[in-house]
């Protein structure tokens, strides 16, 4: 029978693949290596190193020793020529409280950079999962279409044999050949889409070793309670929220630092001089301090406004992540329900097809009606395969967003 092979194919598709670390997913160690090698993840790690270096610089402070000096050869009438010099060594010092705030700003910025790096890895994992399921979904559809072509080829051969024996009309052969042509077009398109999806995955994640053929898509398994728990973990484990809160703390410390900066840091140093060829020599202390004005006040106001904006952005990040968590849960439930309906529709279509075949064998059903049933069964198998992949895609997404898959904190 034409669709018996597809039924076997569909049943085999829901059997877990033992070669995979998890059914339908690539090996976790290979995924980790692929994510580590992704340019966005590498760039994020370097930004963490830059943030740590910036924190070290803040802790040390911007002030350094400054050496200045002058040499003059003076010529005085009737007195002669004299060598004179003047040297000065000065250094600015941070007023109390500024060094503590500089260290706090650096620590918060490092924390933000680390969380942003983890979030970049998170986004790279979502991209990898998206490309992976694009490949598996397209390949599953291509396998269904290829099986349909094979089955219709055998059906056409059988009908042509019946025509030769005078047991069928030429019209039946024409109808079967037309159905085969349509199936071949669909199979060619789906095979091309599978190749494109594989190429996209290989391009973005060359470190991920792909099997020669896409693994079969397993049966979705996710209890509602498990999905609810994953939804809560999306909020609890969000690096996006942690990064926004760390940036808000850094902005708050920067605002306090700018307020203290309205009183500028003083400079203290020593001065040595020699005049009239050494006849006059001296040493002393020098002191200077900039007198702050409207410019420093404006900078302090700017920093305070930026701190308020950062607090609002942290609140927005919590809203965004909550929306993501709710959307992930809704999408997973929706896709699982859609797959179950598609599976039930497939079972019903297979039952109808068996009745059509029996009616055709008894001469009660025309070949055109039977071919329509065959086409509808093909579409039912294809819809079920795509729905199965989309359900697994949604489950994978909520697992990644909750850090239950591929992301170890």
UniProtKB/TrEMBL annotation:
<keyword id="KW-0732">Signal</keyword>
<keyword id="KW-0472">Membrane</keyword>
<feature type="signal peptide">
    <location>
        <begin position="1"/>
        <end position="21"/>
    </location>
</feature>
<dbReference type="InterPro" id="IPR051906">
    <property type="entry name" value="TolC-like"/>
</dbReference>
<protein>
    <submittedName>
        <fullName>TolC family protein</fullName>
    </submittedName>
</protein>
<keyword id="KW-1134">Transmembrane beta strand</keyword>
<keyword id="KW-0998">Cell outer membrane</keyword>
<keyword id="KW-0812">Transmembrane</keyword>
């Amino acid at each position: 029978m034409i669709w018996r092979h597809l039924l076997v194919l569909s049943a085999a598709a829901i059997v877990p693949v033992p070669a995979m670390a998890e059914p339908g997913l690539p090996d976790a160690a290979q995924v980790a290596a692929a994510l580590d090698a992704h340019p966005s993840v590498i760039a994020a790690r370097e930004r963490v190193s830059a943030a740590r270096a910036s924190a070290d610089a803040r802790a040390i402070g911007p002030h350094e020793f400054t050496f200045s000096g002058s040499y003059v050869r003076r010529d005085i009438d009737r007195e002669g020529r004299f060598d004179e010099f003047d040297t000065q060594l000065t250094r600015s010092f941070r007023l109390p409280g500024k060094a503590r705030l500089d260290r706090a700003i650096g620590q918060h910025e490092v924390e933000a950079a680390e969380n942003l790096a983890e979030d970049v890895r998170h986004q790279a994992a979502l991209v990898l999962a998206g490309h992976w399921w694009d490949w598996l979904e397209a390949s599953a559809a291509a396998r269904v279409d290829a099986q349909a072509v094979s089955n219709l080829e055998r059906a056409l051969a059988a009908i042509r044999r019946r025509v030769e024996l005078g047991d069928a009309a030429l019209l039946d052969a024409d109808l079967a050949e037309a159905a085969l042509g349509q199936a071949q077009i669909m199979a060619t398109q789906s095979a091309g889409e599978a190749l494109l999806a594989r190429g996209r995955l290989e391009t973005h994640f060359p470190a991920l070793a792909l099997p020669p053929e896409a693994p079969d898509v397993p049966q979705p398994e996710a209890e509602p309670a498990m999905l609810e728990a994953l939804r809560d973990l999306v909020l609890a484990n969000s690096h996006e929220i942690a990064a926004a809160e760390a940036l808000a703390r850094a902005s708050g410390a920067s605002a306090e630092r700018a307020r203290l900066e309205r009183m500028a840091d003083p400079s203290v140093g020593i001065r040595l001089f020699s005049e009239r060829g050494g006849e006059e020599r001296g040493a002393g202390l020098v002191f200077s301090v900039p007198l702050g004005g409207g410019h420093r006040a404006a900078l302090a106001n700017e920093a305070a406004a930026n701190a308020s904006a950062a607090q609002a952005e942290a609140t927005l990040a919590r809203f965004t992540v909550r929306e993501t968590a709710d959307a992930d849960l809704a999408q997973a439930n929706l896709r699982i329900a859609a797959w179950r309906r598609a599976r039930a529709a497939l079972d019903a279509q297979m039952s109808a097809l068996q009745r059509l075949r029996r009616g055709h064998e008894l001469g009660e059903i025309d070949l055109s009606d039977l071919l329509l049933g065959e086409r509808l069964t093909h579409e039912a198998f294809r819809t079920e395969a795509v729905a199965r992949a989309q359900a697994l895609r949604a489950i994978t997404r909520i697992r990644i967003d909750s850090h239950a898959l591929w992301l170890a904190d």
